[in-house]
User: What shape does this take?
Amino acid sequence: MFGLAYKQHFDSTDDKDGKLAVFCNAPAIRGYGYNLITEIIGTFVLVFGALAMSKPASTLGTLDALPVGLLILGIGLSLGGPTGYAINPARDLGPRIAHFILPIKIKETVIGVIRGYRLLGRSLADCLPLIFLNLYNMNKIFFIITAVSFLNTAIIAQDAETRLKEKGIVLPEAQKPVANYVNVVRVGNLLFLAGKGPTKPDGS
Amino acid sequence: MAANITGKVGKDLTIEQGYEAARLTAINHLAVLKAELGSLNKVKRIVKVLGMVNCTEDFKDQPKVINGYSDLMVEIFGDKGKHARSAVGMYALPSNIAVEVEVDC
Assistant: This one.
């Protein structure tokens, strides 16, 4: 069907790349070294930006993902030319396979991910899932995979406050000590909490 | 569901009710942590839990009761919520509460 939509245009040109470009993008100037640098920068900015975003106090539902979406858009607008802006595997993957073009850019993705995490003080182990996900990365598809894995691992899975909210747990006021002791003693990075018992939802 | 939070597990309360009391205890600890830290996202690790169950002499399933506490911590904090733990039986607890828990994190 879609092929028919473009048939006349395809008939009027012999440019193979031009035909492919209808369905997926390639760098404006093919140069693996320079493309690689752009990919590293793009991945880094995405990882760094998405991780740096703080979760709003109130949720807007699916709109919470909007900042990440705008970040991806910004990366696409600024780096789309040098590296080819294509982040939708639903659109890209089929044509690429069909075209026997599956450049798997593993190295720059891994480097970008690690740098993004490192700068935020996260451990290498934290970014492994992302790297594994990105091993599936075929060219620009890693953008979308990275974004999705962010929403899943960085924001949802690693965010205790969000999970609390998801479970519908509303925290009560912290119980006041009932005798001569304090609730918490902090020693360096360690918190020692006093023994607590349960309270009913009404606080009694 | 009216939570039963007082009484001896094994006589006044079932294991499931004890579990629920331990879960409510965890929520109280989260409230203390939130008051101390501002955000639960700052918690790096739940390190050590001492769970005490107000139970009858012949009750032997203290770990199943304190799981109410541990399960919630893992649900909220993921791998960071996993901790070393003791779950013991107590002859009596203040105000006859079913469960008391200490935590280091």
